[in-house]
């Protein structure tokens, strides 16, 4: 290919695609900066109780969620390609004024709605996390007010049941705590995990051995909360014989919750 022909082709491409590079740059700018500002404003309006740091956190997570969507949909970038496709015709004609805000609000409604939905979900999760952190702090505060005892408690958690044993395998139940829990429960229906946590805090053991056989527990699971509250006083068993039995679906005579049973369960806790 002669130099003249190569130059001519370059020129022809350049002339035909004049608006392309500008559309690329603008689409990137919209995707990275304009969208962040839009999310930040949307969060400010809809969730005015969030401070600027929290808003920034939500906006960054929302943007991250959108980028993950983008990466999952297409290597080339689904949203960026659509933004570029909307911008290109506007840049490809006579030089004129392009209102980026207007273009996005009228031609990228799906993206903006997706961003708003994602931001709402991030805020919801953020508030749930914060509430959980406050809950854990309260439990730790209550635990710190209890004197440390030398008892060791084995806590068993499956997807259906929660129960506790002492070191000898004797089932633990606490009538006083159970009764108090029933009294404060508005509908009289006591959550077994709340009850177990109350018993654990009341007894303030120096060690809790967690036998966690849950599979479908949503985050945060009860064993995770126990670890957050009791910190290094809570240790997980190392696939003990009792857990192996439970994994095989053999719960034996395990109690359904803390309010029943007074005998023994799984005496071979030393495995
Ligand atoms: Zn175990």
Compose a concise summary of this entry:
With 271 residues, this protein is α/β, with parallel strands linked by helices.
Description:
The chain has 271 residues and is an alpha/beta fold. It folds into two domains: 3-141, no CATH class; 152-247, no CATH class. Helix content is 59%, strand content 7%. Strands 2-1-3-4 form a four-stranded mixed sheet, covered by helices on one side. The longest helix has 36 residues, at 109-144. It is elongated, with a radius of gyration of 30 Å. Mean pLDDT is 82; it is low at 1-16 and 267-271.
What portion of residues is helical?
55-70%
Bin the strand percentage.
Answer: 5-15%
Q: Largest sheet at a glance? A: 4 strands, mixed
Cα-based radius of gyration, to the nearest Å? 30 Å
- Computed structural class: alpha/beta
Secondary structure layout plus pairing:
Blueprint: H1 3-16, H2 19-46, H3 52-73, H4 78-91, H5 100-107, H6 109-144, E1 152-157, E2 162-165, H7 175-184, H8 192-203, E3 207-212, H9 222-230, E4 234-236, H10 241-247
Parallel strand pairs: 1-3, 3-4
Antiparallel strand pairs: 1-2
This protein binds zinc ion.
Descriptors for this entry?
disordered N terminus; binds zinc ion; four-stranded mixed sheet; 2 domains; alpha/beta; disordered C terminus; 4 strands; 59% helix; 271 residues; 10 helices
